[in-house]
Amino acid sequence: MADVAPMLGQFGHFFKIAKDKCMDPYLLEFYTNEARHVLHVLDQCLEGCDYLIHEGYTIADMAILPRVYALEEVFKASEYLGLHKFPNVMAWKARCMEPATAKGLTPGKRL
């Protein structure tokens, strides 16, 4: 949990926001590798589980979902990161995107 927000957030920053401002490829490479590592760990944790904590959808899912959601929907990094290589994460994301969650993540929509 501690690595999810900073690593995925920094990846997004250097992938989308600072892409043209940072000429040294090291930072994007570093955070790309860290993001993939976080996704790999999440994928392993979700093996055979519907949600991060076995009892069901919890605050842990709610805390991590926006970061994973942003990789696809905000940063448009699905192909770059190879999100298809993390099937458990992608299936978990789909389960978490129930109508209320999806509506809440849509700008301008109210629950």
Automatic annotation (TrEMBL):
It comes from the Eukaryota. InterPro entries: Glutathione-S-Trfase_C-like, Glutathione-S-Trfase_C_sf, GST_C. Residues 1-111 form the GST C-terminal domain. Pfam families: GST_C. PROSITE patterns: GST_CTER. Gene3D superfamilies: 1.20.1050.10. This is GST C-terminal domain-containing protein.
